[in-house]
Amino acid sequence: MDSVTRHILDLSRRGLLRGATAMAALAATRPAFAQRVAPMPVFQSDPFPLGVASGDPWPDGVVIWTRLSQDPLGDGGLPPEALELRWEVAEDEGFTRLAGRGTVLARPELNYSVRVEVTGLRPAATYHYRFIAGGVASPVGRTRTAPAVNTRPAQMRFVNAGCQHYEQGLFTAWRHVAAEPDLDFVFHYGDYIYEGPANRERSGNFPAIRSHNSPAVETLDAYRRRYALYQLDADLRAAHHAHPFLVSFDDHEVDNNWAAAVSARVGVSPADFALLKAAAFQAWYEAMPLRRAQMPNGPDIIAYRGIDWGTLASISVLDTRGFRDDQPCGDRVKPVCEEVSNPAAHVLGPAQEGWLFGRLAQAEAVWSILAQQVMMMRRDVGGADGDDQPRYDMDKWDAYPAARTRLLNHVRQARVPNLAVLTGDIHTAWAGTLRPDYDREGPAVGVEFVSTSMSSAGDGREIWAGPQRALDRNPHIAFFNGRRGYTLIEADERRMETRFRAVPYVSRPGAPLVDRARFMVEAGRPELIRLG
Ligand code: FE
Ligand code: CA
Question: Who surrounds ion ligand 1 at CB < 5 A?
Answer without folding.
Answer: 163, 191, 456
